[in-house]
Amino acid sequence: MNSRCTTRLTFCLAVLALPASGPTAASLAQQVAEEVDADIAAGTDLRFHGRGAAAPAFVRSATVAGNYTDLPAQSSSGPEFGHAVAIDADWLAVGAPGTLVDHGAGFGGIKPAGAIFLFRKQDGEWIPSQRLTPATFGLAPRCGQAVALRGRHLLVGCPGTGSLPQPGNLQGGYAAWHLDQDTDNWEPLAIPAQTTAGSQCGHAVALTGPNSDGMTRAAVGCPGWNSHQGRVLVHAFSDLGGSWGAASARTAGNGNSNDRFGASVWIDQNSRGNGYVRMAVGAPDKLDDLFPQTGRVYLFEGSALVEAASLVGLTSQDRFGTSVALAGNTLVAGALGSITSQCSSGSCGRVARYVRQSNGQWVFQDGGVAVNVGGTPPGVQPEMQFGSAVGIGFDNWIAVAAPRTNGSGSSLPPAPVANVGMVELRRAGDGSASVDGNAWQAELRPGVVTGLQLGGGRFGTALDFSSSHLAIGYPLSGTLIGGRRGAVWIYEDDRIFGDGFEP
């Protein structure tokens, strides 16, 4: 294996000489396992595995973290900075739902109210801009468990929010902000939230970019609604009116209790005023043919967002629809509970890709399980939860996370460290979209966990693409000295292979 590392020894791109036809997932894992083990034994800080001469140089260009110096002492589990991420153009929003905040006795004193951190890219650096700490009722509102950022709009979910007389009723909540372009400040913007007891609204949130008519759409998942049947609330914002409209609800046509419809949601629209509008909603706990938690993904289309299709998981406990990403005619969905021939003990996970045909049908194209060349051990691991988060990015790149992947510690021989996490990058060799094992191109992961670092960081809990960046949440990372504080790693597609970052 040929390796090129930056002079700071903080990033290494491993390039493999592979057959032109490309290996299978299994042979790829076998081919590199020995090299990976050798690198780990040698102490190499291996953060990236790439394949072939055309492997992408996804360079980690920044690491960002939150500032808690003026907040109450945080818990041992930490504020979970990076549990949710959203990136668009020069703005990054990071959810830290475990953040302890004191909003006063009237709001329950010190509790995990949550926080949202905003960063702006200036002169190549991601600079802290604002910290939002909404004051909400509830025992643990967890604001920032979900975030969405598109254009001048920010949407934040607070699924643990309660009401004043019933702080533990888990009705959930969500709030919106709008970028003031004169001041570059994010200002609160009223959105007529619609919640009921137990709904857990804000568990998932999504935004479209604006179309040419100045219309932006928001989707809010409420998976606890109506005995966990679940629903999604849709709002529309018009530049002409300058405000968010009232919510309209969407439910599954064959919905039942405990489906948890709305546990994941993605909404997409064409920038043209008369272009498409589409929404994908996951119901990962749905029972199908007497198999519990098989899961489904529902597709809604048109300006009225009418249900157009439902796609079903494969087996019991599949939890298909744990994550969804939608871009034009392409849907990618994760099933973190999947049990496969490579892994019979559960929660190994898988990913699937569907394409919308000209007749409106959504047809399965390809799918696969983890390759995980740098894991300990390599390959599919029980409980790794591959497919927990998915994203569709620039140049047909598809990212799939497995935040509970086991990595390596710095002891010799290398010892497994649980729940380190990793993200795989997939794309077909000809540059087209694909998610099967042969489309594995690279993986991003933390390096070897040293004695001063805490394991269990769950890299890949959240991820999001912009036009040239990939942001990945690492919410439980930390050190023995500083505790768990979390971080977000930001990558750029840099084929020049620069080393413009510090660890």
How would you sum up this structure, described in words?
It is globular, with a radius of gyration of 22 Å. It has a single domain (44-493), classed as Integrin alpha, N-terminal (Methylamine Dehydrogenase, Chain H). 4% of the residues lie in helices and 39% in strands. Mean pLDDT is 86; it is low at 1-49, 52-56 and 495-503. The protein has 503 residues and is mostly beta strands. This is FG-GAP repeat protein. Keywords: Signal. Residues 1-25 form the signal peptide. InterPro entries: Int_alpha_beta-p, Integrin_alpha_N.
- Name the CATH architecture: 7 Propeller
CA(first)-CA(last) distance: 24 Å
- The average pLDDT is 86
β-strand percent reads 35-45%
**What is the molecular shape?**
globular
What Rg, in angstroms, do the CA atoms define?
22 Å
Our count of helices gives 2
- Structural class, by secondary structure, is mainly beta
Protein name: FG-GAP repeat protein
Signal peptide: 1-25
Organism: Pseudofulvimonas gallinarii
Keywords: Signal
